[in-house]
Design a protein that fits this description.
- This protein is an alpha/beta fold.
- The protein is 35% helix and 12% strand.
- The strands form two sheets. Strands 1-3-5-6-7-8-9-10 form an eight-stranded parallel beta sheet.
- It is globular.
- It starts with a strand and ends in a 7-residue tail after the last helix.
- The structure holds zinc ion.
Amino acid sequence: MIDGHVHVVGNGSSGSGASLSLRSPRHRLLARVLLHSIGLPGSALRGNLDEVYRDRLLEFIDESPLSHVVLLAHEHAYTSEGRLLPDFGSMYVPNDYVLSLTRSNPRLLAGVSIHPARSDAIPELDRCVDAGAVLMKCLPNCQNINCSNPAYRKFWERMAYHRLPLLAHTGGELSLPVFNPRFADPVLLELPLQCGVTVIAAHCGTRSHLFDPDYLPQFARLLEKYPHLYGDNSGMQTPFRSAHFRTLLSEPYMNRMVHGSDYPIPVSGFWSALRRTITWSHWHETRRIPNPLTRDIQIKQSMGFRADSFTRLTDLLHGGVGK
Ligand SMILES: [Zn+2]
């Protein structure tokens, strides 16, 4: 069982190089809610966040039924010409931090994050693959990445050469500042797909709030066209995204579904019970599970996500994991 979508967060307190700059009151409040949901005090934001976040996460992983977990780095935003936008974005998690965390524990795998417009994007990609990266993660709408920009072709070709999959956020985003909402459209994943990259569309293009476009139909059309496209069911135990679980449990989605929690996004079966994808008694059972990684698995199993959705990443991640 692999969780392919787990965020590392930090403020650099351990010398990790990670940073967190919560400029708007909404993002500050949200950060506190997220910390609270994993049992950490809001004061950790200004304290030793690196250490307490890491230790809590490792505890949860240790007690979970997961064999492997992909820890995600988080890249800066850049212009399409490759100029760093240091004042945009609220979070940065360097590749080296994630790579160093995964070296100490064989259950942990590194999901690195590289903006394809960086002048050193390809050397950084080669370096990360050599260092053991299993996938590359990006948030196109927050990091300003139009994945179908022809200037990025060489980068995607290099990823295809390495057989390194792309995990790309699709659909709206609530937890981080959005640079260009149009880049949430999974249709823009066509260029990497055409270059032969295995792509996992995080959240399958579903809507994050009421006024967000729903890109699930676009995602479905791409699934038909590209057999190497997958979707993850991460971060969907929320009021709006939970509406799409029922659809994802059917074909053509189910055959291409991979498991992800989107930790530390809160996990509650309440929304699914309300939408009758699980029973109220399943909700009562799962709400007693203190470990959010385990709770997420239990809720998805109750919903009917098949066993292969929890193990599919074994074949997709760079190098094939657990073989
Ligand atoms: Zn995420």
